[in-house]
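Ex. 9. Protein: ABC-type multidrug transport system fused ATPase/permease subunit.
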Amino acid sequence: MNKGLNNRLESEVALLSHGKAGRVRRHFKALAGWRIKLSDAESTAFGLMEVLVIVLFVVALWRVGNAEETPQAGDVFAIFSYLWRFVESLDQAPVLIQKLAKLRDLDRRLASVAA
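Predicted structure tokens for ABC-type multidrug transport system fused ATPase/permease subunit:
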């Protein structure tokens, strides 16, 4: 998806310099479309992460509830505090993956220009 957006952005200066109003309008509509696709992909990734988090907490709660020994309140607190910190770090994963994909596309473009 980044490739499509970057292809559009590379042609923007020439299009704005020499393009007619209709072409410029189509260009910006296409840019909006690419940005919407990227946003939708990011939202899907966040949604999947939230489902994973819910499953993780349900499994942890089930395991604590079915433990052979009755857990102490501090044990339960420690388990869920650790899980919460883990989940907070996972929240950045979709953004980092998107930025990594963008950097890879830019790296390929720069390598092709340098070659």
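Check your answer against this statement. The chain has one domain: 2-114.
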